[in-house]
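Exam revision sheet. Question 4 asks you to relate a sequence to its structure. Input first:
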Amino acid sequence: MNAPQFPRRLVAVAAALLIAAPVAIPAPQPLAPAHVPNLPSLGDTSREALSPVTERKLGEEIMRDIRFDRDYLDDPPIIEYLNALGNNLVAARPGARGEANYDYFFFCVRDPMLNAFALPGGFIGVHSGLLLAAQTESELASVLSHEIGHVAQRHIARQLGEQKTDALIPLAAMVLAALAAKSNPDAAMGVMMGGQGLAIQRQLNFGRDAEREADRIGFQIMGAAGYETNGMVAFFQRLQVATRNYSDIVPAYLQSHPLTTERIADIQARIREQPYRQRVDALDFFLVRARARVLQDTSSKGLAETEEFLRNQLQQPSRHQIASAQYGMAILALKRHDYAGAQSWLDKAAATVDRPPAPGAFSSPLPKGVADSVLAYTSLEIKVDQVNKPEVIAQAIREGEVAHAKFPLSRGIVWQYADALIKGGKAEQAERFLRDQLQMYRSEPELQDLLAQAYSKLGKLALQHIALAESYALLGGTQAALDQLVLARKAPDASFYEHAVIDAREREWQAKRREAMGEKGKDKGTGFAVSGSVKAGPAQEMQEPVDPSCRGMLANSPRCADGRVGMPQATPWGQQRR
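Answer key, structure tokens:
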């Protein structure tokens, strides 16, 4: 059974689609940055077509739709790993965040194609197929660096500016055709078609030039960050094999990307000017790939095929390969609800990682990256899922407290620890912990979901619905958030303070909803084109049907309890239909 296909909800003008490779986080002791020539930033001329602030807003609206798609891989270890790698690359490119100081966000979608893409405003997606196909961290870094180049050079905004200019070409051709029609109708038709063809060809030429520019910017970035620049060549060669049939059929002048052979030759010429370097891949690169392999297809057939692959990988001599295969078997057992087997395989993976080299063998320390954080998250994940075993949940609480102290920046561990507190009957402690977290991370809907669960356990109905409203608002569901405020206002325990909060939020979100509806009206018929029928306008309001984000550890949250987006009535969490 093939993995589900991720719908192409990407802006056509943002078609910075480039095939990429697996992710990796820099070794603890990064190599000295390579000397690479600087290219000028050419994004300033695009301000009139799309300002940096508007570009970011557009990207956020597209991301709201993507997060609700079932093929969005909302997995904390994978997301944290990609962002650790990606932001390390961004830091190597001064000015990559632009004058709007973009916060880059890297994410993964289930798709077997070798591809990655850049959305407006610093959002970069990676296909799971690319993550699995990459053989080294440098290959993956080359892809992410390329996409960062698209964002840094503002290719989307520049292409919009080009389109405005090119729109005049068919108009001029029509005028010439009208003049020519007086003497030669056939020539008039040729002039008109030629004008349209010229406009299309100019767009294709711009796309190829943008790809070349992104390649060169990406080469600079990965070199400055300490990665092997020949990883870009290795990835292009893998891409050439994957797209050979397409490249053979479509002429070079009709392709939106340069020929892969041309890109390889260009990068190879640049590599010759650089000293050779070798970089040891960190362990977390392999762990994340194993996790993505299991999560890509969780059907019975898909899990069986993954198990066969991992068992073959266990026979490899590399400690990286053995540890990641054992870790993958742990995730596989967890998906089958075999908790004892999952814990056993996870313990084996940890033992392999910590195992000293054989006596007399030459071995350097094994770079881990965020591997310890990934293993700690998975250990919590296994225990928190056993909700009917109080002794296991109690152990998860103790383990979560230690893990959070050791990895305070891991958002996945924070969510698992809070979930364990709620399931372990420590709702008051969970409330205090989540309130502290919200002081620092106000934009995380997961924290509001978990806080709503804690309030429900404590019987605080008004606060429960306010927390759910905050979660909906963060996810772009303004109307659903307003509906939750109505329920909060009707709750019997709503105090004067809660009513004041409700009134303030209601005024804010009503204004936001009117603004969004006004923008939809303005954009109707002229919005940014996207493949398919989905427009990249303001995020669609949440409706009553099943909410695709209700999965994973939050599948039993109040807003997911009845399989719908909104809550039908103000009932305590314990009485919700599961």
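Marking note for examiners. The CA atoms of residues 27 and 194 lie 54 Å apart.
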